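Record type: ASSEMBLY
Status: queued
Input:
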Amino acid sequence: MTTMSPSAESAARTKRAGWLSFSGQFGAFIFLIILCIIFAALNPAFLRPINIFNVLRQVSIYGLLAIGMTFVILTGGIDLSVGSLLALAGLVSAAVEKGGVGLLTGGGAGEAGGYGLPAAIAAAIAVGLLGGLLQGLAISKLKVPAFIVTLGGLSAFRGAALVFSSGQPISAFREEYRFWGQGLIGPVPVPVIIFLTFAVIAAIILRYTKYGRRIYAVGGNREAARLSGLNVDRLILSVYVITGFFAGLSGFLLSSRLNSAEQVAGVGYELTVIAGVVIGGTSLFGGEGTIFGTVVGILLIGVLANGLTLMNVSSYYQQIIIGLIIVFAVFFDQVVKRRRR
Amino acid sequence: MNDNLLLRMKNISKSFPGVQALDGVNLDVHAGEILGLIGENGAGKSTLMKILSGVYQMDSGQLFMHGQPVQIQNPHHAQQLGISIIYQEFNLMPNLSVMENIFIGREPGKSIFVNRRQLQENTRQLLNRLGVSLEPGAIVRDLSVAEQQMVEIAKALSLQVRVIIMDEPTSALSDAEVQILFKVIRELKRDGIGIIFISHRLDEVLAICDRVAVLRDGKNVGDLEAGTATEEQLIRLMVGRPLNQFFHLEDHQTTAVAPEIALEVRGLTRTGSKFDSSAAVLDNISFTLRRGEILGLAGLVGAGRTELVRTIFGADARDAGEIYIDGVLAKIHSPIDAIRYGLGFVPEDRKAQGLILSLAVRENIALTNLDQLAQFGFVKLAEERNRVKEYVSRLQIRTPSLEQQVVNLSGGNQQKVVISKWLMLRPKILIMDEPTRGIDVGAKAEIYALMNQLAQSGVAIIMISSELPELLALSDRVACLSAGRLTGILTRTEATPERVMRYCTLKQGQTITEEEAVA
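Status: finished
Output:
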């Protein structure tokens, strides 16, 4: 039995899948390039460095959240709470920076430079990690569906943000604090550097580490992963801690960029972030997707918004167009899968 | 015979990019005839059936129903023509009842409401015609595989079917259930329905079919009267040369089973699901397994074979009992623990439980072995490739590259990927649940040879198989399960098919008398 050739069907499938998986992986990228060319042709201002950095700065918060979201969606999960958790973390960060407004003094601005910048950043991240941990435990140990748990988180963290701040924004930070959201290193906005750095780290983790491999395995087939000796519960828990981390970090960065932390910060972010991840080719069923795709997906949304704005298209229409693209992206994803099976 | 010719496929060809899947194939099915269709995986059986059921369009050739040329456009059109196909994986809605499944989309009743009484009556009539006692209102999810198959057949009947294609219909059935299925098939035959019976189990093909058509590499290579054909003959036609299906097996008796006990199970008990805690799934099971031994687990569907090995492996929780490995009490509460104690587990459903279909051959094989292959958390890619390559060539996994997604491999090669990922861990005890289900004769022989080789090197193997000849040929001892109880362990010489079946059908409280045991 050494001469048996692979079956006809499977050979044919392989060939088709080759083309389709190529276009599946790079479809969004090709679309992004085409979009850039069109916008550049219609309005030369689009390609000016200042505009490009502007786009990048605008997407960097979404991008950071999307990196975490990619881990979650790769396991077949979802995190709807990132926007709310971001708001809570931003307020806590601001409060620590200010030396304890909000909860501690019952509102009103305190003296700037309260507990110092490192403490503020650490507090924001700690809030994010804790929020993610709680949700991850509910999902992995109590087996409540991720959609439900994080839908709860979406509401509860927003509520916590309101309680914490008594509904008041915390504004006007020191230069040192604002630098992380507003500053430049050379011509490059700081949040962009942070976003791209984490994107590279995440891509390396997913591609080259045991942990990354296991994330794909859990998302691809949870039962097979469990029977292969993977600690599935712990892996699932970990991805919600990761989104929590990015929600915390983003909360700090957004408050820094806006020079203000508000309980309404990040409303609806979860949908834009999920859209970016999905447009980037990550399967909502888990097991397939890349950080590269996510970066492209998020850029695509950013470029589309920016380009349409430059063309004086109202933001109302922009939402319609982005909505259509999300549906098309998922449709395409399914066509690829159907052909392959 | 010509006047009752039902279906004629003439000179059918179909190619996919790079492969000629079917090359001038002819196939006739007469009314009231059971036609066996056999061939190795990739011989073109499924392509042919997909053309017949409207999934694929043929490149050239002609199709006749009742002598009239037809062009089958799509699956719905095939159904209208009276061609139904029953796949290995059923197309049933598990949440609906038997009758709703059978008449979905064609519910009786003139208003928007379903006439339930009529629905029940129609369903009962159909089931009676098949001689099956099933409650029309029963929810499909609660039925056994065999019963679900009957629902599929009843559904086909309700569509005024002329030709029924059954793709590996017996692969998930116990022997008793196979007999019931055969009765139903003969019933259909009596009604003048043509049946195409696709199976890897040649004994069954010869038992039920009138005629057997053999395909190899997309061509007809044989058309035999089942009454006079032999398994040997069919295998020779399928593979193109003589092949002793169970080669190596005669040697196996000489394997020196070592005296050391690798695994001891004491009083293993698992009570029923939370819905039905009365029936024990596993009832106080104890046995030992020695190094270099192959222990076969025999039993009918529902006897608890899979439940037993899953519980040993820690995939399901146990309610009582102890597991000793190399004489030491093993605390196994999860597959992670089991793997630490040197166990490996090839599960029965390789697609649902064994493989990550979306990942590559390389990633699947490396999955259980990442701890060995990584340093500081990073997978050492070169070493990974080399180790995987070693197993791909050792098990002769036929894949275009290590990066091929496993979903694209044939069943036999997929199974070898699953086995490889465990072998790389160098297990002391390997559990194999239906390791040859749904794979072709050649790959089977390779897996048999591999199992013997592993046993010879001292690995202890527990094997489950629903194919009794295979089980008897490979096992040093056969453990018989019936309704969650271990009813007997037979040595190789004691284990005749009749005796094994006797132990596997023992009811609660029954024992085998001395005379019977000797008989």
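Annotation: Chain B has two domains: 2-239, 249-261+290-320+330-518.
Annotation: The longest helix of chain B spans residues 175-190.
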